[in-house]
Amino acid sequence: MTNYILLFSAGVFAGFINVTSGGGSLITLPLMIFLGMPPVIANGTNRIAVLIQSIVASGNFRRHGRKDLRAGLYLGLAAVPGAAAGALTAVHLSDTAFKWILASAILLGLLVVVFHRQPPAGREVIRKKWLQMLLFLFIGFYGGVIQAGTGYLIIFSLTMVGGLGLARTNSIKSIAISIYLIPSIFVFAAKGCVQLLPGLALAAGGSIGGFLGSSFSHSMNPKWTKLILAVVLTGMTVKLLTGL
């Protein structure tokens, strides 16, 4: 029961972080491994929570006036082949290899949190759509392999390359992730690498966090979120590296 409470609580925080910036899986994946779950199963199980919280956030963004279904749909579909290929790669990784990949992703995520600056106000129309679709193919592959930190890649693609503002970016991000996660979950489930009950506990918390994040992403001060996330990721990195 204690593990489920921990997963639910981590899900709330991770769901909020995922929707407002990205990187929530950098918290939940190591936590599941620390609780004794094999890395490949943690990698598959985590996706249930991310999928459900992304769907909840997408609906709430729409309720708040963000109608980005079309853009999210074609970018999500562009990511699907990469996500399937990435998942097929991930299920064959050794536990040690996956832990090194996860540790590297956490370190990169920590650097993004520390040095990332809020993008300037952007446009409402995506620039370079074909380039965006190509980028999302590669983002999908990365998400298929590990998912953790994918939000940062999507934000970079849509704000720095696509020229969008952060509010629309977060809305499109939730839709695209909801789409490309589905084939990767099927791959992990087919290999027996998904545990339903821990995933649902994480998803229940993530849904609450995703709802809160999509409700308050316009008005919150990102400095406190970045500070808390930086502290948590530092602890996760130390713990994971000392266990390798």
Strand-residue proportion: under 5%
Average pLDDT confidence is 83
* Class by SSE composition: mainly alpha
Rg for CA atoms? 16 Å
How far do the termini sit from each other?
Answer: 27 Å
Runs in which pLDDT lies below 50 for 5 or more consecutive residues are: none
**Could you state the order of secondary-structure elements as H and E?**
HHHHHHHHHH
Structure annotation, total helices: 10
Helix percentage range? over 70%
Please describe the biggest sheet, giving its number of strands, its sense, and whether it closes into a barrel.
none
Number of beta-strand segments? 0
Integer count of domains: 1
Shape call: globular
Describe the secondary-structure layout.
Layout: H1 2-20, H2 25-34, H3 39-63, H4 69-90, H5 95-115, H6 129-145, H7 150-161, H8 166-190, H9 196-216, H10 222-242
Helix pairs in contact: 1-2, 1-3, 1-9, 2-3, 2-10, 3-8, 3-9, 4-6, 4-8, 5-10, 6-7, 7-8
Q: What does it look like?
A:
The protein is mostly helical and 244 residues long. It has one domain (2-242). 79% of the residues lie in helices and 0% in strands. It has 10 helices and no strands. The chain has helices spanning 2-20, 25-34, 39-63, 69-90, 95-115, 129-145, 150-161, 166-190, 196-216, 222-242. α4 (69-90) packs parallel to α8 (166-190). The chain is globular, with a radius of gyration of 16 Å. The mean pLDDT is 83.
